[in-house]
Amino acid sequence: MESIRIVEFFKNKSILVTGSTGFLAKIFVEKVLRVQPEVKKLFLLVRAGDATSANQRVQTEILEKDLFKVLKDKHGDGFRSFVTKKLVPLAGDIVQEDLGIHDSDLRRNLWKEVEVVVNVAATTNFDERYDVALGVNVLGAKHILEFAKRCVRLEMLLHVSTAYVAGEQSGLILEKKFLMGETLKGDSYLDIEAELSLADEKKRELRAEDAPEEAEKLAMKELGIRRAKLFGWPNTYVFTKAMGEMLLGHSRGDLPMVILRPTIITSVQSDPLPGWVEGTRYLSIYLSYCHLRATAGARWMLCRTIDSVIIGYAKGKITCFFGDLDNIMDVVRSLLRIRSHQQSTLIFGYYRSETFPMMQVPGDMVVNAMMATMAARSGQQAEFIYHMGSSVRNPVTYATLEHCGFRYFLANPRVGRDGSVMLTKRLRFIKSMVVFRVFMTLRYKLPLEVMHLVNLLSCGRLARGYNELNRKYKFVMHLVELYKPYAYFDGCFDDLNMERLRMATKKDDAEAKMFGFDPKHIDWEDYFSSIHIPGVMKYAFK
User: Fold this and answer.
1) How far is it, in rounded angstroms, from Cα 516 to Cα 369?
2) Is residue 169 within 8 Å of residue 185, measured between CB atoms?
3) What angle do CA 414, 297, 324 make, to 5 degrees?
4) Span 6-278+335-393+491-519: which CATH code?
5) pTM to 2 decimals?
6) Pick from 13, 438, 481: which is nearest to 235 by CA?
7) What is the DSSP string of 230-283?
8) Which of 338, 391, 527, 528 could form a disulfide with 493 if both were Cys (CB 3.0 to 4.6 A apart)?
9) Domain Fatty acyl-CoA reductase C-terminal: where (predicted)?
10) Under a CB-based contact definition with an 8 Å cutoff, are residues 512 and 505 in contact?
11) Residues with catalytic roles
């Protein structure tokens, strides 16, 4: 692969960005504006009823973020004028045809002008309503592709997916595309149109029965999980993201396309604001935990991001965690990596072990990889798959995170609402599902059964308390089943394609420094202690 000119690629480009108010899209927009001020236009699609509302969302949910401070300082008093010329808010929604852009003249102008489409929009809830997840992650991808095909100057469609479309596969997971109808379970066939019809039919059935809103929501969530597991995926999110990839690959024709599959995306490591994260993104699971804490004083937590653990630990609400302290995050330790310099290839030998990785990668590295892949593959009439994570580059353990968190809070004691200093204790880890289930049975399930018996003997006097605690216990166990595949994930994401791209960027020292996306260079202890944990405390925990 020849040397890549990333900054030059974005000069005079018109780029359509979906999901533009999301965490990753903000980092992308800021980076493009900062490193290539001669970008022509960034069209930002936001869910809004009209242009005025779209503009307001861009102002408050994007430009007012601390992330843009460096760019504001760079332009000074001219910042507002600069972004007004470069950013074009678009009211729309990817779940609708033509992306919900109803102005026909505006659509035609976009089809004439847009050269790059970046799809970052997604619903990432593991147990999202099936109809909602299908609408955003599947139909949304279809509508993006249809729109991109009508852009006469299009050079690239970049679709951000997730590495976890691999489901619960173990061993070395390759950067390969999904075939239409492919599943992760046996010889079954996945008919996407049938799944869309099934979800619609179920929703019509529930509404015909005048089902309460909460009952409909629960039924649609359960349908998504059930269909995902039927075809081999652990949850609705990764199932529908996989379907989105299938539709894109099957229907793209000769359109140049990159599918980027990052692992868990965490705070900015260095550029432009170390430690920056989005508060609501990382607090959602923690808030659910706070709601559950009344379950006999439960003090454990299972989450899909390490940031929720940090917040819970900071609040003193978490004293133990679901996982193995010695397990490696984003790497299977026994992966053997050998480089052949003569042939410029990577040869992998994989030896199965008992480690279960949890994966992460800083948000700015993901954006740098996005920009590099776009520049490298622009105009090439093929589909390219890239994993973005530290699977084979730079192992990190839960022990590192625990040690850094303990050390950070020792040096920065937390203060309770009453003004007293909270004691910092080591976090205990529950290492297996067997141990966890025994713990939950002895600590909560058996007392609940006793409470149920007492309630019967007392003619229902404890009914209200029992029903509430039992409901919360069941919800806790639901979360356990939902996130168990990731607490004990036994796979490793190959990044051969991404490594080749890294080698190409290294041919230009200036660009390699500006667009670094090699996790090998991350000092995990420094990142957690000096960047990530302080960032979570400042921007998410506040």
Assistant:
1) 8
2) no
3) 75
4) 3.40.50.720
5) 0.87
6) 481
7) HTT-SSHHHHHHHHHHHHHHHH-TT--EEEEEE-SEE--SSSSSTT---HHHHH
8) 391
9) 444-542
10) yes
11) 237, 241
